[in-house]
Amino acid sequence: MTPREAAHYRVLRLIGEQPEISQRELARSLGVSLGKTHYLMKALLEKGLVKADNFRRSDNKLAYAYLLTPKGITAKLELTRAFLRLKEGEYQSALEEIARLRKELQEAADPAEADVPVRKVG
């Protein structure tokens, strides 16, 4: 999964959860600039994955509700699968690293159990 695909996944997920989210709120949730968020939204709109509908907020300002299109829902599911595979791979790598670190600490704590012979000094 590319960084762009990961960003698109996160945007699609947030829009699916909160259709009335503003770009400013999206930017804050994603931890990116407002300009980057605008760029991501523009790409998703151009791909036909998201559509924007006007609505009025309670403070009488015009705003948008972002809706996933059927194509967007399909893309979100595909990206979810890819993201899950990525995270499962990272999880497996982390488990392997934890096992290596535990073994290293165990061997350092009890040199008699280590595979390397220990010489006594003195």
Care to describe what's here?
- With 122 residues, this protein is mostly helical.
- It has one domain (3-109): Winged helix-like DNA-binding domain superfamily/Winged helix DNA-binding domain (Arc Repressor Mutant, subunit A, Orthogonal Bundle), CATH 1.10.10.
- Helices cover 62% and strands 11% of the residues.
- It has helices at residues 3-17, 23-30, 34-46, 70-109, and strands spanning 50-56, 62-68.
- It has a two-stranded antiparallel ribbon.
- The longest helix has 40 residues, at 70-109.
- It starts with a helix and ends in a 13-residue tail after the last helix.
Summary keywords:
122 residues, mainly alpha, Arc Repressor Mutant, subunit A, two-stranded antiparallel ribbon, elongated
What's the arrangement of secondary structure elements?
Layout: H1 3-17, H2 23-30, H3 34-46, E1 50-56, E2 62-68, H4 70-109
Antiparallel strand pairs: 1-2
Structural class: mainly alpha
Any idea what the CATH architecture is? Orthogonal Bundle
Q: SSE order in H/E notation?
A: HHHEEH
Spatially, the strands of the biggest sheet line up as: 1-2
Q: What coarse outline follows from CA principal-axis ratios?
A: elongated
Span between N and C termini? 57 Å
The residue ranges in which pLDDT falls below 50 over 5 or more consecutive positions are none
The fold-level CATH name is Arc Repressor Mutant, subunit A
The mean pLDDT is 86
Count of DSSP-assigned helices: 4
CATH superfamily heading: Winged helix-like DNA-binding domain superfamily/Winged helix DNA-binding domain
Q: Please state the CA-atom Rg, rounded to the nearest Å.
A: 24 Å
CATH class assignment: Mainly Alpha
For the secondary structure, the number of strands is 2
| Beta-strand share of residues | 5-15%
Largest sheet: 2 strands, antiparallel
How many domains is the backbone divided into?
1
